[in-house]
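Troubleshooting: if your tokenizer reports a length mismatch, compare your output against this known-good record of 235 residues.
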Amino acid sequence: MAAISTETGFIVWGVDQTAYGPVELPTLVSWVKDERVTAETWIYATRNSCWQKATDVPELQMFFRSKHDGPAANSAALTTPRGLEPRALRRIKILGGMTDEQLERLARFVEVERVPQWTVIVKQGEPGDSMYFILEGELRARISVMGQETILATLGVGDFFGDISLFDHGPRSADVVANSESLVVKISTAAFDKLASEAPEIATPLLRAVGRTLSARIRTDNKRYGDSVRFSRAA
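Known-good structure output:
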């Protein structure tokens, strides 16, 4: 099991007067959707070491607002007439430790895209020139094998994909399809190169966080492969 970051984790004070966590943002969001966490639930954010009601936690406000205002207002809370509300980027797990000032600078280098349901955002085999962060919705990564779809992963709020393109500009290794209407943030390789040149103090920790995630994926895949080899030899 992957360790929970002490910079981006959350602790939930349950109705049974018990603290649950720390948990990462995607788990917390699922608890909100399941109504295990309500607007009045107390949440401790480890990044700033303070307790807040769930409705006051920036990463969760859209979910409580949406119950009253609907999906359009929900997404509007993440954007401004000029583009992205910088604090919305804190939903991304690897960006959770950044300051408001750092997020504001990063927001100048990214683009916001609304993705209708069933849209193929990236297509397997096509050249890659950008990575994406998920602010809203759900997507799936898939490959086609002999005409059959194989789902590699389901991606939600706080996840990212397409990161390898920042390094090699090679072909996409899988399709990514929107399971529901989604809101994503895109950073192109050109924009990232500009970020690295103009704000290396932001680009460097971002790259390190991406590298840690890639390492974790490789370790998981290596373990899965090792387990399958041991199983086949034991059979």
